[in-house]
Amino acid sequence: MAAHVGPGLRRGGADDSSPLPSRVHIAAAYAVAGEIAEEALVFRVLTEAEDRPRALGDPPFFLAGELTAGTGDRVYIRGGYVFGSLNETYGAAIGLGLVYERFELSISRELPRGGAALEQDPTHLSLGVAF
Q: I want to staple 112 with a disulfide (CB 3.0 to 4.6 A). Which of 4, 60, 77, 117 is the partner?
């Protein structure tokens, strides 16, 4: 997938432009399905790599697992680790989510990498609606 690809942004009447923060993502997932007490249970292993086309270098590599319970309405828990140095992005993260009909609610948090990091790492809240 390519994101934020296009010509640079020009502000006002300026002759120079700022380049967009283009990204290229390559991802793969493998799902293992199961059933416990008549409830669908799926475990997925996900991998992803990301780099900048304008400054190719040391792309981060994401490795994660997701356990989902349910078929229509679902609950899931995610955990993963980022290996790499793009924007100093590295370390572990965890998340929890709920899917109800067309709505999705997720919360995730990076795990602290040391001392003061606990106060700096944000908690992410995501709300989604399927059309």
A: 117
102 part of a folded domain: yes
Q: Is the pTM of this model over 0.90?
A: no
Answer yes or no: is 46 within a domain.
Answer: yes
| Paired strand residues for 41 | 34, 69
Helices (H) and strands (E) in the chain, counts: 1, 8
Q: Which phi and psi (to 5°) does residue 118 adopt? A: -60, -35
> Does an H or E element contain 118, and which?
helix 117-120
**Does residue 41 sit within a domain?**
yes
Query: What's the structural domain count of the chain?
Result: 1
Higher per-residue pLDDT: 32 or 89 = 32
Residue 6 covered by a domain: no
Q: Which two tokens stand for residue 16?
A: 């120079």
